[in-house]
Amino acid sequence: MTQRIFISAGELSGDIHAGRLVAELLAQDKSLKIFANGGDNMKEAGAELLYHINSISFMGFAEVIRHLPTIKKLFEETLKLILEKKVELVVLVDYPGFNLRLAKALHKHNIKVVYYIVPQIWAWHQSRVKLMEKYVDKAICILPFEPEWFLKHGVDAVYTGNPLMDKNPVTENQKINGLREGAPFIGLFPGSRRQELENHFDIMIESALKIRGKYEDMKFVVAMAPGLDFSSYEQKYSYDWLLWKKGQNDAIMQQAEYLIMVSGTASLEAALMGSPMLIIYRTSQITYYLAKKLARVEFIGLANIIAQRKGIHELIQHEVTAGNIFKEIDNLLQNPSERQRFETFYADVRQKIGGPGASQKTAKLILELLEK
């Protein structure tokens, strides 16, 4: 009899990791049937999608409240499919507001629940750990310090490694069209969600103009997240020194002088590649106010959190100004010794994370739980 798994992811970074997991699950058991809420990575790996992340990726308190009818419909149809398809195990991928509620509903139907890429409730909203203790059968962590915290709070947790270490090695000097080989440029990573793009991109361009006021030969390359429409920005900012690239994140991370990055999974990916960067983040005032009340961590950058020190500078909320970004980048460009500082810091982060194999180990563990 064919065994059935459902995977619930709600944003791009979760889809990327879950895509690797789907590929490993099917490599270890070709008879599996996998349904999912996810994106192109999961679909290409062999999952059958119910909802695409482009229609369900909401972030921040205000955004979630505004889209409550959509989220309610998503929840009802997800649960209906899981029950109709007689799914035996559900894998939740981050996206806690939705996924923890789903875990509670699944518990009533005696369906096993694995949480892969656990929500960062150790950072904020720690009361949610009670829901995980009650409704999650196994928590699979991708940050090395997480299992200890979850185990202390009664959640069965394990670290299988970080799936970013499973990426194929970066091809050396992958060509970025429109750039002379070796020409200096700064990479702009404005985030993978519409709200992040709206909150950060204009200030990134204002910063770029300031930087070019001093470094007039400097070019900028925008890393365009899949699923986001940049057309209005391309029309608004049609500078010859500004390049727009999709599907070249690795090359941009590897070759840029520095990166200006919205905080998120991509910043850890860039750190593991050894890319010097500045992390920025701003959101709506209400989201920032509530998050600050609930926050239990000193940093927002994942590499900083893992290392437990600020190896990468961060600008948050009101600090995110063109003047402050210029000062940070100017300091980096004026002080080549900063590169050595980054290298030392990143070596510490890589040592803490460990080697590759996370997706393979996670798939093996999930299949063992399915058999039980």
What does this structure look like?
This protein is of the alpha/beta class and 372 residues long. The protein is built from 16 helices and 13 strands. Strand 6, helix 7 and strand 7 (157-159) form a beta-alpha-beta unit. The protein starts with a strand and ends with a helix. 44% of the residues are buried. The mean pLDDT is 90.
Secondary-structure map with pairings?
Layout: E1 4-9, H1 12-28, E2 33-38, H2 40-45, E3 48-52, H3 61-66, H4 68-84, E4 89-93, H5 96-108, E5 112-116, H6 129-135, E6 138-141, H7 146-152, E7 157-159, E8 185-189, H8 194-214, E9 219-224, H9 231-236, E10 242-246, H10 249-255, E11 258-262, H11 265-273, E12 277-281, H12 285-294, H13 302-307, E13 314-316, H14 322-334, H15 337-353, H16 358-371
Parallel strand pairs: 1-2, 1-4, 2-3, 4-5, 5-6, 6-7, 8-9, 8-11, 9-10, 11-12, 12-13
Count of structural domains: 2
Flag low-confidence runs: none
Count every beta strand, where a strand is a DSSP E run of 2 or more residues. Answer: 13
Sheet bearing the most strands, described? 7 strands, parallel
CATH topology of the largest domain: Rossmann fold
Overall structural class, as computed from helix and strand content, comes to alpha/beta
Given the C-alpha coordinates, what overall shape results?
Answer: globular
Order of helices and strands: EHEHEHHEHEHEHEEHEHEHEHEHHEHHH
% residues in beta strands: 15-25%
Q: Which CATH top level class of the largest domain fits? A: Alpha Beta
Give the CATH superfamily of the largest domain: Glycogen Phosphorylase B
Strand order of the main beta sheet, please?
3-2-1-4-5-6-7
Radius of gyration from the alpha-carbon trace, in angstroms: 21 Å
